[in-house]
Amino acid sequence: MTVIWLALSACTGLGTNPVPVGRGALTVFAAASLAEPFTEIADAFESQHPDVDVALNFAGSQQLVQQIVQGASADVFASANRAQMDVVVQEGRIAAAEVQDFAHNRLVVIIPTDNPGHLEDLRDLARPDLKVVVAAPEVPAGAYALALLDLAVASADLSPEYRVGVLSNVVSHEENVRAVLSKVALAEADAGIVYASDAAGEPRVRMIEIPQSMNPEIMYPIAVLLDAPEAGLALTFVEFVRSTSGAAILLRHGFTPAGE
CA 182 to CA 187: how far, in whole Å? Predict the structure, then answer.
């Protein structure tokens, strides 16, 4: 198995076509938040298919879309939201009818374990002089964070000024959700908004839960590209992701499989 992160590959010229695709080679482009479960899924898939090498390219969904739109060779695309998947569909590289949802996630607020900002609940994000990091608006995690703020002010508990207050505390917009997690884990920020699946595996952060009524629906879609070099293997991989075995791996990493 080969794993590539776009932040590294961009420096080496590998970003647009990271792995030579040939017989038995399967290239999977997957959202950064899927790194742990998809690495385990790829290992399990290779165990069942010994002649197959799965190459995983992880980055923010919007970065992966840019690669695909520019002609990168890939077999499978797994996005952190429908909006980015729809871009690839509109560009003619994925058939809309082939897109399938495979997992749910939810947002949480994370803080360093020693809680330097003294946050106790969601309301505290708007307190003046905090340092908050979020993903950039074009990143699925960033778009979801903005949706969270909209849902929060639509509730009876928080005023429109809450959204303004939180956004005024944002000191950095990151290119993917893992960068948000890293900054908070390193105590470079008082708080961040990430997926629960990311926070669950990081011992240097604590989670503040977000009420379900304020948590946007987060669904992960997956599809085989129309010009996939290994279309048959790609379909088998997608079926494995959505199988009982794939669902068990997703659950272990904090995701909820689709349909549950």
Answer: 9
Query: For residues 74 and 224, what is the distance between their CA atoms, to the nearest angstrom?
Result: 9
Please report, for the chain, the start and end positions of each structural domain, with discontinuous segments joined by +.
2-104+219-257, 107-214
Asked whether this chain's domains 2-104+219-257 and 107-214 adopt the same fold, the reply is yes
Q: What is the pLDDT of residue 3?
A: 74
Q: What is the pLDDT of residues 153-202, one digit of tens each?
A: 998 778 889 999 999 999 999 999 999 999 999 999 999 999 999 999 89
CA atoms within 13 A of residue 21's CA, in its CB half-sphere: 21
- List beta partners, residue 2: 55
Residue pair 40/201 in contact by the 8 Å Cβ criterion: no
Does 249 have pLDDT greater than 70?
yes
Give the model's pLDDT for residue 23: 46
Q: For the domain with range 2-104+219-257, which CATH number is right: 3.30.70.120, 3.90.226.10, 3.40.190.10, 3.30.365.10?
A: 3.40.190.10
Answer yes or no: are the C-beta atoms of 26 and 76 closer than 8 Å: yes
Q: Taking the mean position of all CA atoms in its chain, how far away is CA 117? A: 26
Tell me which long-range contacts 158-161 makes (C-beta under 8 A, separation of at least 24). Answer: 158/123, 161/126
On whether the 107-214 domain is CATH 3.40.190.10, my answer is: yes
Q: Which two tokens stand for residue 71?
A: 């002609």
